[in-house]
């Protein structure tokens, strides 16, 4: 069992909540716009504090039972719905930000490899400002993977990519899921994407 | 071009202004951070305190410094007995006066920049493994750089121009506390001293212009092609 | 109400001149409007064409500058007051010292400083420097001077213990509870301290000459004497 | 609580400070905009000029004002002959002095905010049919509001505290140019006037605290729930 | 003939260019990430100045032959790839920003109608901050339509919406295309979307 999540949180005048356990592999969060998918990822990442509940991944408790690990201790790689690149660092420095912070023994992907399948080699010396939508998205994926996470959160990571690039990246995600056996929480509106990648599907309603 | 006395005055002004601004910078940043980010009881009061040197006439500030740091003052007595240090009539006292006068300007500038930071970027850094501290140094501080640079320029200019608090606190001692504005003041007191006043005033203008140019250069160096707004 | 004449007066005259104006107003005249600032600032305003009626300077050179610019009414300049210089110490000090030729001022100061108004710029400081020079001790204390912005600031340095000794006007020392007069300088040791008064050419106010005359009258002089000023 | 004379001084200070800041605001904003957005020859020079009142001791600024705006000065003569207006010894002159001293602080604060605006939002407004001018009023200016408010607070505080330039330029005339700092100066000239000084200084502190609270309230009102960073 | 576009523009060290004419209806721009799709929309909208070329829509010249209309005179409704909502205005004020500026006679959609098919009625009094990705995207679509444009530019407008909402909006786009006969320039990576909506397809290569 990789995810054991039971959280609730008020946002404005509505309440976002979900409760599920999922086995190994990729768990897809599915639901209409505004259902609370991003909020749930934020809670798992430690960026939004649940009002109550618990978050466990594998045998680690990230939240609940008096525990509330800070984001940096959760060892999570998060691909945000918006790129959220650091505007004051070049693409290379963005990619390596988390990589340098990780224990070398934990790293499971090298810069070259990420740059290669993401096709961003020509962007390494560019500033984030001026990247196209899909370019920024690919850099954001690379940055999350290179951080040597033990769990991935991906919020519509492929939404603005063309079919060929999408295929390349899905292959890598499959490899991460099957070879490295990292638990992945994945948000997407694309039925085909979800059908291909998901081991398990959690439906949220708005 | 400049007499050796004038060189001495310029050098002293630079020392006083430089030390005042650099020593104040971390304190001012901490205050700006507190005021921008934290909500705590007494926040408005702290905000008011920080603005005080702007509102109270400089001579009053100088007089308060004298009351506090003079030999009869509580802080002065404490400094003297514990460290054997006295700020009276010393350039360090002039730097203290300049620092206090520059503080409100520096805090405001940095506070504006801190408030303009996209905090979600700090969250992103945390998920990438950065501690709050590391994220501060690598994300928040660099993003607040425009404010820090503005604070340096404003603070330095204000320090270079500080007069009232300095002369009241540490008087006008050649070579020790006679900075440019004090020299200008002395010249102004003498009928017909206008030529000297003009000369010295132009000197301070030149100094601060140099600081401006340096800061613009720093900004440009830091900004090469980047922009604060991404996707 | 009718506006009184505009009087530009040295800041050190604040209390005495205010009282004189009150008395004058009580006689049924419009109360003069008095602007107190450093003589230098006031003189510069007059030189720039500021329309005032009466000028009371704390020293002669600034009055001279205004006169040279042709701004004074003929024959209206006269000396209003005199003052004395005193050596002061913080009130708790037990220092004994009489200003006289060759008196041991430098030794009395020790490592401390002597608080003065700026001896190169401010009138009180210039008088003090002249007095010390005449008494033959200036060279021995010149490097120990703490030149302040004005007499009051110099006195504040002594009041707060920053300087063990200072030289100020007798009128200042008299009004402060935190300083003690150690000794008075011989009148012969420095040029006479004089506060000149003059009407300005640009003056249009009908009361200007009258107020000037009142200040110079017996009643006027008595008010200044009460505040410690001496006759010129 | 306050004597009627003290009330008069407070009212005058408020009038001088208020007029100075409000009249300077548009000019300062225009300068901030120019410096933040435009590249033109002489930009550094303009930047330097704007900073001058900070660097040059206030008495020198006052003296320059006197030379320029006095009855014998070029600007003063022109004002007199064309409009029959004189600033000498008038509260308008005090407001001019305060305005000039506040200018650099106001320009810097607004410039920081203008530089932090996401310019793509202005582009979006244009595609929605807004002229450059309309987009300025509805997008750029509201987004620069934190800087405008900071400018108001800094400028008002500085104006309330202005002393050296004012007394040098328009003298110390009760009811006309004797603002709080000048009254404090007068009180300082009287031996034993400390009680009065303290009282008046506390008054200026209260004034500026009120301005601070008002500005914080404005900020909060403007911000209700919004944030500068969206998607 | 609704679009007659021939532009070229250097960006950094590459050159973006396209040349096509298209008839009435919806013209889809297709191409890999970084091909220059967004840049072309920006040039048509007047936000990016071409180095040379011309832009004509219907019988109006927007750029070229010495003409360079400012964006506000081009009467274009642009749905940006990122939401680009005004952070200091509530959702309602965002939606009405262009609406109020348009000549009432030109308006062809009312606030109620837009709010209705976009399903954003409950968001009208919210600030943009705090909207979910899809919510912001829908507001951005509404804002562009309500501005009474005579031509639409849409940059991946449906990328983060769920299937049901996507269907609703596509129906409206079809109506705009067929009933109002507005020329539309449309960027998408979704093959199905393009197949359904596009009258014509322009391929760009990166
Ligand atoms: N600060 C807030 N105040 C009020 N409501 C909020 C706030 N933050 C988020 N919400 C609401 O919470 C709901 C969940 O948002 P969330 O971003 O998690 O949605 P989502 O499922 O990711 O949607 P999408 O697919 O559109 O990205 C939305 O309706 C959003 O408007
Ligand atoms: N200021 C700039 N400097 C250098 N290159 C730039 C600049 N602006 C844009 N580019 C490059 O121009 C190319 C086209 O960008 P554009 O945003 O038009 O791509 P796009 O086709 O919309 O891609 P996507 O589908 O990923 O959004 C990209 O490779 C981008 O990196
Ligand atoms: Mg979302
Ligand atoms: Mg694009």
UniProtKB/TrEMBL annotation, chains A, E:
InterPro entries membership: AAA+_ATPase (IPR003593), ABC_transporter-like_ATP-bd (IPR003439), ABC_transporter-like_CS (IPR017871), Molybdenum_import_ModC (IPR050334), P-loop_NTPase (IPR027417)
Domain ABC transporter, residue spans: 2-206
A GO MF term: ATP hydrolysis activity
Pfam families in the cross-refs: ABC_tran (PF00005)
Residues making up the signal peptide according to the UniProt record: none
Keywords: ATP-binding, Nucleotide-binding
UniProt xrefs under SUPFAM superfamilies: P-loop containing nucleoside triphosphate hydrolases
Annotated protein name in UniProt: Molybdenum ABC transporter ATP-binding protein
Organism from which the protein derives: Sphingopyxis witflariensis
From TrEMBL, chains B, D:
GO cellular component: plasma membrane
Membrane topology: Multi-pass membrane protein
Subcellular location(s) per record: Cell inner membrane; Cell membrane
Location, primary (coarse class): membrane
Superkingdom as given in the UniProt entry: Bacteria
Record GO terms (molecular function): molybdate ion transmembrane transporter activity
Annotated Pfam families: BPD_transp_1
Keyword terms, alphabetized: Cell inner membrane, Cell membrane, Membrane, Molybdenum, Transmembrane, Transmembrane helix, Transport
Regions crossing the membrane: 12-36, 48-69, 89-110, 136-157, 200-219
Function of the molecule: Part of the binding-protein-dependent transport system for molybdenum; probably responsible for the translocation of the substrate across the membrane.
Protein name from the UniProt record: Molybdenum transport system permease
